[in-house]
């Protein structure tokens, strides 16, 4: 896929997922989540060449300083990835993210090990992760799963699941209403947490 076509696809994904998006121009110049993804793509290409690993890390740190979003250059990210608001997002080195995934601000895709192994999450296609959620370790989050705001997920989920709470409790979506695309996984916050 060509560079400009990829940019257009990213912009359209943001417009599709953010009801506040008013124009292509506004999204292209004003959405730091997109800027972070675009810089990550450059850093990730550099990371794949041994002699460019240090410059890739420096670019990722510049990206963090500029956008408030930290994405390790080793992380693998699919198409149409969108970070809404973005501030405070951390994505670890061995993270793998599928296509059409959306994260809200304050999300951590972190590790639980100091070993040089796969230690960060894998998010399959169409996953939505709510604000402040933490997904830790080499867990796999199944397709079309919603992780609720502030959930702490440390185990695999099946496809079409909802994960809420600390530690996250997982259940399969029960009805057609729950099968609709998740707009805001904050809807899935465990009511017991409100007490």
UniProtKB/TrEMBL annotation:
Its EC number is 2.3.1.30. One of its GO terms (cellular component) is cytoplasm. GO terms for biological process: cysteine biosynthetic process from serine. Pathway: Amino-acid biosynthesis; L-cysteine biosynthesis; L-cysteine from L-serine: step 1/2. One of its GO terms (molecular function) is serine O-acetyltransferase activity. The keyword Amino-acid biosynthesis applies. Pfam families: Hexapep. It is an enzyme of class 2 (transferase). It catalyses: L-serine + acetyl-CoA = O-acetyl-L-serine + CoA. Keywords: Acyltransferase, Amino-acid biosynthesis, Cysteine biosynthesis, Transferase. Belongs to the transferase hexapeptide repeat family. This is Serine acetyltransferase. It comes from Enteractinococcus helveticum.
């Amino acid at each position: 896929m060509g560079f400009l076509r990829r940019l257009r696809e990213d912009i359209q994904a943001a417009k599709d997922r953010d009801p506040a998006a008013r124009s292509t121009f506004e999204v292209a110049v004003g959405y730091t989540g997109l800027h972070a993804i675009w810089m990550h793509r450059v850093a990730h290409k550099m990371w794949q060449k041994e002699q460019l690993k240090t410059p890739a890390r420096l670019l990722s740190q510049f990206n963090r300083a500029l956008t408030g979003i930290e994405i390790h250059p080793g992380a693998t990210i699919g198409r149409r990835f969108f970070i809404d608001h973005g501030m405070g997002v951390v994505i670890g080195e061995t993270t793998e993210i599928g296509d059409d995934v959306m994260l809200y601000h304050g999300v951590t895709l972190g590790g639980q090990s100091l070993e040089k192994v796969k230690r960060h999450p894998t998010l399959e296609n169409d996953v939505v992760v709510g604000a402040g959620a933490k997904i830790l370790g080499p867990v796999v989050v199944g397709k079309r799963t919603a992780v609720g705001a502030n959930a702490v997920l440390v185990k695999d989920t099946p496809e079409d699941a909802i994960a809420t709470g600390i530690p996250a409790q997982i259940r399969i979506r029960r009805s057609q209403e729950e099968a609709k695309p998740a707009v805001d996984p904050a809807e899935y916050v465990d009511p017991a947490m409100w007490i």
